[in-house]
Amino acid sequence: MWSAIVVLSLVGCAVAGPPVTRSRKDIEGFRAYLERSRTDDGLRLESRMLLNPKASPWENSGKFQGDILLNDKQVELLMQQYAGVGARNAFIWPNTKWPRNTVVYEINNEFTQAQVQAIRASMAEIEEHTCIRFRRKTSFDRNYVLVTGRPDGCYATAGYWEDMGMHHTLNIGKANPGEGCFINAIIIHEWLHIIGFLHLHSTHDRDDYVRILWENMVPDGEYDFQKFDTDTVDNMDVPYEYASTMHYCRYGHTANGKPTMLPIYNDYGRMGQLDYVTEWDWLRVNRHYNCPGAWETPVHADELSQKRENDAALEKMSQRNVAEDLPQEEVLAADTPQDVEAEKVSVVEEARLDQ
């Protein structure tokens, strides 16, 4: 339902569209869904991947929108918005950026040395590209992220909440580095939730770039595809981006193996990719945290949000996988020059956790 959203950054969140009258049954169903997303259903990630092998590990992690672990306040705010209680802009979150741009963390002692190195490498990459810094917890810290390795998936809390204490969670289901939740882009994806970002498909104008196929979703899957309006979504002047590390793939929450989301323009097989973090992903973070020079950095639509290293990463994607992921009948716009031009300005916007 969000993106901080990416990745949409969380200023606050309001479901797009006019107020809707919900029945008691609808409201109770939504609350039951939110509560289920916060509990351990006993399924390991491997079991969920067998049920939907086309989705990514984080999409299959059983939480809100796949991998967002909600706190009590977030649940109540989501319930108020869904039920139409109060003003349309009632779903406004307080400042959820980490103080002094510094994420305080502790890595649980259940990981192998190789796994710890993979976690630290993801943090180093974030520090290299942004003004975010990481600091190990001391005995004086009350608010920090506990990095755990439960086997139920890859997921995290979204943003900084002063009254949560250590209950900021980043879980990376244990696996060999480069596999499962220990793919580098997935670890960074979860850190971006911690930093304050949601998923890009929730932005207010996402319907200009993707088509949602509601009929192919699992029960309650529609809750994870709601979007937010312009009152609370800030794209930070960065275009919609299929290749963002915070974007769903085609098959999130599918009930029948068919796509639940398709790009309107040719995405060249990049939507939902797990190979790299884009330059525009980094720019969103830097603008969200007002990092030096971030707002002076020009955004050129023809960059297609590629990092300098992306060319090498894309070469790793076999033609077989691209053809499999991008069947001809799933491309909604013809591959013509005007469509390519339109895709160049397609952007994933972000819903900000806070200003």
Automatic annotation (TrEMBL):
GO molecular function terms noted in the UniProt entry: metalloendopeptidase activity; zinc ion binding
Documented EC number(s): 3.4.24.-
EC class of the enzyme, as a word: hydrolase
Active site: E190
Region annotation Disordered: where it falls in the sequence: 302-327
SUPFAM superfamilies in the cross-refs: Metalloproteases ('zincins'), catalytic domain
Top-level lineage group: Eukaryota
Cofactor requirement: Zn(2+)
Signal sequence coordinates: 1-16
Cofactor note: Binds 1 zinc ion per subunit.
Biased composition (Basic and acidic residues): 302-318
Gene Ontology biological process: proteolysis
Name of protein: Metalloendopeptidase
Gene name linked to the record: HaOG206786
Residues of the Peptidase M12A domain: 89-292
Pfam families: Astacin
Residues that bind Zn(2+): H189, H193, H199
Keywords linked to the UniProt accession: Hydrolase, Metal-binding, Metalloprotease, Protease, Signal, Zinc
